[in-house]
Amino acid sequence: MLLAGIMMGVALAGLRTVADRGQEFASPGRYNEVWQSYNLSRQVTTLVATADAVASGVEPPERLKLRLGVMRTALLPLLRTQIFAEQESERPQVQATLTRLDQATRRWERESSWQETEAARRLAAEIAATLVDQGQDLHALVVAANLAVATQTDRQRQALQRTFHWLALALLLLAAGCALLALKIILGQRRARRLANDLHQLNLSLERRIQERTQALRDREALLQSILDSSPSDVTLIGADQRQVFYVSHSLLLQSGAEHASRFSLAALFVDPAEHARFVARLERGELIYQMEARLCPRAPYWALLNARQLRVGEQPAWLVWCFDITQRRRQQERLTRRADTDDLTGLSNRRALLRATVKQLRQRRHMPLSVLLIDIDHFKRVNDTHGHDVGDEALRAVANRLRSAVQDPSLIGRVGGEEFALVLPETTLAEAVAVAERLRQRIVTNPLALASGPPLTLTLSIGAAERYPREPLKQLLRRADRHLYRAKRSGRDRVVQSEG
Questions:
Q1: Is position 119 within any domain?
Q2: How open is the CA angle 58-62-63, to the nearest 5 degrees?
Q3: Beta strand pairing call for 495-497 and 461-467
């Protein structure tokens, strides 16, 4: 059918081409260049006669200007025509004649005037003198136009003849194509009968093959079920649309709160919906998830290590997810991290943890004020020497407890030296920080440390306060606060210093 359609299209295209060519030959006014050349020659002759009459005073100047316009109108079509390109040999004198007439008539139109009679007569005499000898050139122009039109007509006739030849060839090919098409139909019928016999033989063995394939699939499913049930990790195989559940471990089913595998969903398994959204987004992007930590089972939360990848179950995309309980390992890591970041004696943050928390505050509150208090227990060495290190340790813990009550975030309080503490106050100006420091100093002074034997021990604090300048590095801020602390100790201790002066 495609071959027949192509052949019919070729034949119709050929007929359409012949019809279009015939319409072109039948259209009136097709070759006006011959008439236009004769008309230009006649208008030049008339312009010469008019110019003689104006020069002799017989005709008024406006007649010359009018005749110039008429000649210009007759000249323009010949300037735009491409007919002279059809000639077998070039005739540069024809184009030169047209160009010369075009330039002369433009200049004469600019110089012609209706009011100045003398100027018009001089121009008329110039026109007559210029055009009187143009007869030979105009005759050559008329001859060239006739030859060009005759050449173009002959070429179009030859093209039409070639079109007829191609059309005849197309019809011949159409006949040959029809013969080939009939042969193909006959051969196709024979092949169809042979295929029908083969199909009948296949249908006889199809049921047996289906049974064998079904049994093989059942055996593979049973083997896979056995492997997944024996896995130390919880496993689920769920469709990428999260609607069809192909497999889910019994423990995961219980943790999600679903009564049946068909009701299982990953969303119900995660404690934090944001973690579920990130997990699903990564799978939808085609990422391979390896050892992603997340909290699972909202009813009894625990930490799990997730591994997931995409695969296909038949033609349907699916996700295979492994979950491994790492709660014990996570707790051990948290204990180690807490010990690494905490001062054993006071329970406050150590210097490294305090700096990390301060940097976090600076990033979160770039344009908010932030102040730092550096605090030192006065004459602490005397306390250790007089009362012993146990009392010294008790004094450190007492001061730490007083400091802990000054801020809401315990990570912003730290023991940064033997008897030196640091207190970070976000969103706090220097004046507000100094007020906090004074309250702490007064609280320590007015609440002596009770001892097992002897009178209570009164402690005093020296405090250096500093507020962070815009874009000031943290080290520079701590250095300024340390200088203020040094001034407080040098000035007699038991005081708060906030400036360099």
A1: yes
A2: 55
A3: parallel
Last residue of a domain, one of 277, 294, 329: 329
Q: What is the mean pLDDT of residues 307-312?
A: 87
Domain residues for 97? 2-169
Mean pLDDT of 226-253: 75
Domain shared by 304 and 391, yes or no: no
Alpha helices in 447-498 (DSSP H): 474-490
Same-domain status, 381 and 315: no
Residue-level pLDDT at 81: 77
Cα 498 from chain centroid (whole Å): 53
Report residue 410's pLDDT band, with 50, 70 and 90 as the boundaries: confident
Give 37's Cβ-side CA count (13 Å radius): 24
CA 440 to chain CA centroid, nearest Å: 56
Cα torsion at 255, 259, 260, 265 (round to 10°)? Answer: -50
CATH of the domain at 374: 3.30.70.270
Contact status, residue 244 vs residue 238, Cβ threshold 8 Å: yes
Cα-based angle 226, 231, 233 (whole degrees, multiple of 5) = 145
Q: Are residues 285 and 363 in the same domain?
A: no
Backbone dihedral region of 212: left (phi > 0), alpha (psi from -120 to 50 degrees) or beta? alpha
Q: Scanning the structure block, which residue is given the tokens 């559940």?
A: 245
Task: Please check whether residues 347 and 405 belong to one and the same domain.
Answer: yes
Alpha-helical segments (H) within 342-419: 351-364, 380-387, 389-404
Helix (H) or strand (E) holding 304: strand 302-313
Same-domain check for residues 471 and 375: yes
Q: Which residue in 35, 63, 34, 60 sits closest to 47, CA to CA? A: 63
Alpha helices in 310-379 (DSSP H): 327-341, 351-364
One domain, residues 351 and 324? no
* Torsion angles phi and psi, residue 272, rounded to 5: -100, 115
Tell me whether residue 221 is in a domain. no
Does 460 lie in the same domain as 358?
Answer: yes
Residues 83, 148 contacting (CB under 8 angstroms): yes
| 40: nearest Cα among 82, 90, 94, 85 | 94
pLDDT tens track for 375-409 = 999 999 999 999 899 999 999 999 999 888 877 78
Largest CA distance in the chain: 151
10, 72, 178, 294 from 319: Cα distances, Å = 55, 85, 56, 17
pTM value is 0.42
Number of domains in the chain: 3
